Amino acid sequence: MEKRFLTIDEQVRLLESRGMRCDRDTELTLLREGYYAVVNGYKRPFLDVAATSFEGEDRYLEGTSFSDVYALFRFDRGLRALTFRHLMMVEATLRSLTSYAFCSRHPKPEAYLDPNNFTQRRDYIRGEDEYEGDLRWMIDTLEHHARSRERDPRGPGRDVRVAHFQDKHDTVPLWVLVDELTFGNLKYLFALLRRDEQLCVCDGLARISQAGPNGTLTPRELERDLEAIVDVRNLCAHGERLYDARVGIDDAVDYVGFVGMVARFLDPSDLAHLVGGIETLVADYSAKSPLIARDLERTHLAGI
Asked: pLDDT tens-digit profile of 286-299?
């Protein structure tokens, strides 16, 4: 059956008919944020499961208010903002280490356009069947950014640093071009590095995070971590629910596991800032509602 469009007044009446208390702020919040984003995104901890199953439509636990659901929404928004801020540090570190590892072994300015400067099929950590497609796509992506002057000499999309090298030196080295790549691009670029270059990246991360020799990742472990980290980055960028998301290969990683992965990219002070921020958010919003406190306990965020 098709879902009929509901006015804001009708949305409020629907929530009240299902057992949710609304107040004078509910209408403005729904108008500003949207019913789907707030209610459909964050209602689960507040549902009366037995009554919902019996009625065939949502029924809320006794005492649930719209402000409770909106508080969980705001908690997750705060968590995304805090997480995204630290992911920018992770991304910058990966850019620097990956381009350094490649350029130190392939110093010619456009060495990244030569397929022979990357790993071989049999060593590709994403699998031999993925190798040719990934390699061709990666080189095409790099060439696309390196040749942006030829497409549009004055185009607004030209990065200032890339434009400088194109105009002054004709070629753009990877350590400049890497700033044009997305986090997802970087994940593939790392996978395509030769083994000794990947180990160089792993060693660099161990130094930055002060993990010590026993904390150094293997290239395959790092590639696995990047799958989950890029997933979280995309959730943050698109405003999707984060606090109880499952990410990475086979959706095997929760937010607490993600923080453990990010710890391998951040220096100790930045990691402490992230963990401290999470603890503050959890404490502040747990105090707003026992149902929120219980749900954050369920996701283990309360003990991070």
From this structure: 999 999 999 999 99
